[in-house]
Amino acid sequence: MFGFRLKLTLLVIATLPVLVSLGFWQLSRYEQKLMLEQAYESRHTLEPLPLSQVQRHEDPLFLPFTVSGRFDPDRYFLLDNQVFQGEAGYELFMPFLTDDGAWLLIDRGWIVAGDRERLPEVMTDPEHLILTGFAYKPLGKPFMLAEDIWEDGWPKRIQAFDSLKISEAIESTMPDFYMVLRAGQPGAEQMRPTVINLKSEKHLGYAFQWFAMALVLLLLYGFQMIRSGKNHK
């Protein structure tokens, strides 16, 4: 009987902190997603800013802005494994040389993948353009099953957005964010709706589940300890 109580106590000591820590982790994720939702709601209706002002902003996420310049039609990135309406495709990223001589990456939207053995060719307007969109950058590091190795030549099929590797490929420093074109802008392909994956309320629900499991574990532990004590007597 003593051995059973000892094993049960060790099991609870090992499991309870994990459940509680998972609950607090989900609470932190809830706060992060809530801030993202509030930022998107408050910023997407603002008047577009110049790029220089967005670059000076402490947190440019979702800020609308306008740039003028030309696309580099010979170099672009195809972000793999992007699905839209049940069809596999790529997210098209293309360097844009602004009138100030600075490089900026533009998210032109989703294109269909077609033949996997052959990368799609992209039509690009070579003329001077004025573009409007909003600033965005991925939050955290993406999960990948293997190392993202970029082949020589253009275009480049990539598995994840990496601002440093992109700057190295372009051989010029670019901001750590990119512009997502608004629908209807010159060069825009299929612009998918901006969706913040997993709404904040779901993280709050997950946190409640982890804390509830921790409470149930404590109640079961207390019940078993009382029961084993009575049986021992």
In short:
The chain contains 4 helices and 8 strands. The chain has 233 residues and is an alpha/beta fold.
Total number of distinct structural domains: 2
End-to-end CA span: 11 Å
Report the helical percentage. Answer: 25-40%
Structural class: alpha/beta
Helical stretch tally: 4
In which order are the strands of the major sheet placed? 2-4-5-8-6
Gross morphology is: elongated
Q: Average pLDDT value?
A: 85
Work out the radius of gyration.
25 Å
What is the element string, with H for helices and E for strands?
HEHEEEEEEHEH
Quick tags:
4 helices, 233 residues, five-stranded mixed β-barrel, alpha/beta, single chain, 24% strand
Explain what you see:
The protein has 233 residues and is an alpha/beta fold. Helix content is 38%, strand content 24%. It folds into two domains: 2-34 and 200-232; 45-181, no CATH class. The protein contains four helices and eight strands. It has a five-stranded mixed β-barrel with strand order 2-4-5-8-6. Strand 3 and strand 4 form a beta hairpin. It starts with a helix and ends with a helix. The model has no long low-confidence stretch (mean pLDDT 85).
Element layout with pairings:
Blueprint lengths: L1 H42 L5 E2 H6 L7 E8 L5 E8 L2 E12 L4 E10 L16 E8 L19 E3 L4 H8 L7 E4 L18 H33 L1
Parallel strand pairs: 1-2, 3-7, 5-8
Antiparallel strand pairs: 2-4, 2-6, 3-4, 4-5, 6-8
